[in-house]
Amino acid sequence: MARAEIPGRLNWRVATLATAKDETATARTLVLDVPGWAGHLAGQHVDVKLTAEDGYSAQRSYSIASAPDGARLELTVQRIADGEVSPYLTEVLEPGDPLELRGPIGGWFVWNPEAAAPLLLVAGGSGIVPLMAMIRAHAATSSQVPLRLIYSVRTPADAIYAPELSERTVASPLEVTYLYTRAAPPEAAPDGPAAPPPSPASPGQAGLGEGPGAIRAHAGRISAEVIAKSAWPPEAKPAVFICGPAGFVETAADLLVAAGHAPAAIKTERFGPTG
Amino acid sequence: MSIISRGFSGRRRPGDEKLPPGQYLETGFPVLSAGPTPPVNTATWEFTIVTETGEARRWDWRQFTGLPAEQITTDIHCVTKWSKLGTHWRGVSLDTLLDGVPTTAGYVMARSYGGYTTNMPLPDLRDGKAWIAYEYEGAPLHPEHGGPARLLVPHLYFWKSAKWVTGLDLMTRDRRGFWEELGYHDYGDPWREQRYQGD
Q1: Distance of CA A119 to CAs A146, A170, A254, Å?
Q2: Contacts of A7 in chain B (CB under 8 A)
Q3: Which pLDDT tens digit goes with each residue over A188-204?
Q4: Please, what CATH class does the domain formed by B20-28+43-192 belong to?
Q5: Are A109 and B114 inside 8 Å of each other by CB?
Q6: Cross-chain CB nearest to A6 (options B4, B178, B196)
Q7: Segments making up each domain of chain A, as ranges
Q8: Which architecture does CATH list for A119-271?
Q9: Considering the entire predicted model, what is its pTM?
Q10: Alpha-carbon distance A163 to A160, whole Å?
C-alpha cells in the first residue's frame, strides 16, 4: 500500500486567505496562499491554529480539498453551529487575513495517482472533502482509473461540490450516486436509479452535460442494496476510501466487508465533532 | 511566536486548565480508526507477551478476565485535538501482566487484531501507568472503541492505546508502529505536544 513519509519537522506556516467561496449554507471553501508549501497527497489534512489577542489559541484539523497545485491550498470547512474554530473560518476570516497552519498530515488515507485499482469513494456529509481532493487529483493527472462516488447527504442543498461533480462526470470516468437521508427530491426513488439531482448552486441546470447514467440519486441511507447497485463488485478489487461521521463510516465499512471486499483494501477516516 | 487571528476571541470552558496544549474539551467519544472494525470473538481471543528472546506468555479471555482488575479514572487525549476528562475504565494492569516476565527490553510494540501496531518505551507500561482495559463506563468495551479489550496508556496520545489489542512484543531497539511510520511521534506526550515526528 502507498505510504508517504513526512520528513523533518512540520513547522507552522502563515498562509493568507486569497478568496473564499460558499459551497452550501454551512460549508465554505478557503483558497489559501501558503508560501513554501511543498505539496501534498490527495486525502491529507492540515492543522489550523487560531490565536486570540491574549495568547489563547485553538487548533483543529481540516482536510485539503484541492489537488496538489504549487503554493495554493483549498480547505472546505463545514460550520459547526456551536463550534469554536469553524464559525471563525466560515464567517469571520476575510481575504487578505493570515492563517497559521501546518501540514500536510496523514500518509494513510491518501490516493496515489499511479495506482491502477478502480476507486470507490464513499462520503458522508463533509467527509466528501478529502475524497474531492482525490477526484481532482485523478482529473489533474488524467488518470484513466474508473471512479465511483457514493455521497450521502441530508438533502440536495447539503451536497458540497454538486455542480463540479456533474461536470466531472463528463470529462472523467466518474459515476456519482447521491443518497438523500432526510429530504429527497421527487425523482429520487428508493428503489432504483433516478434522474440527476438538482445542483444547489444552479437549480434547473443540473441535467446539463452528464454522461448517461453517470449520476443517480436514491432516497434513504446507505444499505446493502445501495452497495450492490452503486459500488464496484469485490471482484473489481477497488481501492476503497470512506470518510464521514463515525457512525456512517462504521456502517459503510461493515456493509462493504459483508459484501466481500477485503478489509485491508478499505481505508477510513472518521470525523468526530470538530467545532 | 503566534500571529493574532483578527476577530478571534476563543471559547474558554471550565476544565480547560486540565487540557494539554492545542487540545479542546470533548464530551462525546469520537472514533478514530484506519479501517473497518475487525470482528474479535472472546471465544478465540488471546493476549500474548513475547519477550526479546522469543519467550511467550499467553492468556485466553477466561484467564485474562480472571486476573485482578482495577478501576481507572483518567483523562484521555487524542492527537486529533479532542480530550475527554474523567473517563472510567476497568482493566488489568500491565504490572500484573508483566510480573515475572524475564526481560531487559527497553521498548514494546503493541499488536492488534486487524494488523494495527504502535510502539512505546516499555517503562511507560509499568508502575501503574497502563492497562489492558475491557470495560468503559461500566459496560463491556464496544468494538468501535477497541472491544473486547484495548491497551490503555492515558499519559500518551490515544493512538498509543491500541484498540483490539492481542499482544505485546518486547524489543531491545525501538521500531515504529503504524502511525509512527506515517509521521506521527515515536513517544507522543500530549503535555509536550509531541504530535508528529520532529515535534
Answers
A1: 6, 17, 18
A2: 197
A3: 655 544 444 444 433 33
A4: alpha beta
A5: no
A6: B196
A7: 13-105, 119-271
A8: 3-Layer(aba) Sandwich (3.40)
A9: 0.90
A10: 9
